[in-house]
Amino acid sequence: MTTVDKTTVKSDSDWKQVLTPEQYHVTREKGTEAPFTGKFDKFFKDGTYSCVCCKTPLFRSEYKYNSGCGWPAFFKADDAEARIVRHPDDSIPGRPRVEVLCRSCGAHLGHVFQDGPQPTGERYCINSACLNFASADGRSARAAECASA
Ligand SMILES: [Zn+2]
User: What is the Cα–Cα distance from 142 to 49, expressed in whole angstroms?
Assistant: First the structure.
């Protein structure tokens, strides 16, 4: 079983200072946002999704699809072996699931299910509260600024 590296280590009180109450509850207390309420559920702009806690890039818009399940769904993660940890979750009796966490900071992200589209057949079911989004436009604009500086 792989474990979280926790290269980004903060105390609970530190996380509370940098996260909203909802972000804290979902990422640090393994909460789940209510279905169909997250800001990225029906959001399909071009860009990159990163961990809201430690900013590690996790997903790209190219991997996102509309699963209809009420949470953002991705059929793969960026460099998943290095950035995501899978953990057996038996918190619901009779319904074993696989929890996914950010490897670098241990943030709970959501779960991964084996009912996604090809080519992976996987569905990362992720809470919007765990993600930051950077649009492809914004990123290229910042890159241009750096180049001219
Ligand atoms: Zn993280």
Answer: 16
User: How far is ligand 1, taken at its centre, from the CA of residue 107, in Å?
Assistant: 5
Q: Which of 54, 102, 105, 125 is catalytic?
A: 125
Question: In terms of pTM, does the model score above 0.85?
Answer: yes
CA distance 34 to 37: 6
Over the stretch 6-44, which tens digit does the pLDDT of each residue have?
A: 677 899 999 999 999 999 999 999 999 999 999 999 999
Q: Tell how far the Cα of 4 is from the centroid of ligand 1, in angstroms.
A: 10
146 is catalytic: no
* Residue range(s) defining the domain that contains residue 43: 12-148
Q: Is residue 4 part of a domain?
A: no
